[in-house]
Amino acid sequence: MSGPLLEIRGLAVVFPTRGGLVRAVDGVDLEVFSGECLGVVGESGSGKSVTFLAVLGLLRPPGRIEAGEIRFEGRTISGLPEAELRELRGRAIAITLQDALTALNPALTVEQQIVETIEAHDPDLPRGRARRRILRERAQELLRLVGIPEPARRLAAYPHELSGGMRQRVMIAIALSCRPKLLIADEPTTALDVTIQAQVLDLLAELRERLGTAIVLVSHDLGVVAEHCGRVVVMYAGQVVERGPTAAVIGEPRHPYTRGLLRSIPSIAEPERPIRPIPGQMADPIRPPPGCRFEPRCSLARPACRLPIALRPIDGGRAARCVEVAA
Ligand SMILES: Nc1ncnc2c1ncn2[C@@H]1O[C@H](COP(=O)(O)OP(=O)(O)OP(=O)(O)O)[C@@H](O)[C@H]1O
Ligand SMILES: [Mg+2]
Fold first, then answer.
1. Taking the domain 6-92+178-320, which CATH number applies?
2. Residue nearest (by alpha carbon) to ligand 1 atom 3
């Protein structure tokens, strides 16, 4: 297939609240290609999770897609009835949610949860005794695949009996049980210590290589993305502000927000450089600035920045939403 695996066009997601309409995602365009690892970065509240919950039809009402189109393998999936979305979640696209402990069911063992998803997506399982044996074998195989030692013993464990890293692995195992073409990993390592973080990320890289699964790695850590993703999308206040090949975006960021984000992480290239957080606060999602959403925090802001601006293409498959980039 030549087109992207996943294509998001002009996505807008809103949440009606007592204080007004929260514009969580507002005009997001992005695509994911077969087999790639795409990084999605941005500060807390920039709309990363909501974007992908919308893709999978997992927005909690009253949250809803207000505008835009989502296509998977060329077919429009936004607006599909829940039954078809559920099938898609099982067959083609999987997500590991940001919070592993709440995403897993505390009342069910690891085996019960894995078996539940396998059963839901495989209509060809035999009946009777053979079924149980096959399901158990498959569950063990999945745990082995994600590097859990002693899988037979772990199957009987409840989520609270596992470490954070183990829980992430179990979530990944559940996500992989349907052999998805696209795995969305939402902050898979945030709650983990550095060593375990590296192990989970290496696991994702290995799965991509071995199974050819495309991965979207959602993270607020540009350093993690730099190491694992060929392309990156930078989000700010519900919009994409920059995108392109990771090395180019990090080597020569074109949006002041991306530059700020780079300065706010322990540098990959210059470990001695001081970390400088971006001053100011994330834009109000109910009353966002009319032009560039970063304008109120931007040291380079000028009057032109208060007018609406689209992503502007730059050579090399890049784009940035900034007046500094020639239209
Ligand atoms: N159920 C909800 N009701 C109202 N607003 C919501 C709801 N869920 C998300 N939002 C708002 O949508 C915006 C985007 O949230 P989202 O969770 O996508 O951010 P994020 O980029 O994933 O942040 P983080 O890095 O903290 O995970 C935020 O302003 C958030 O407050
Ligand atoms: Mg999130």
1. 3.40.50.300
2. 15
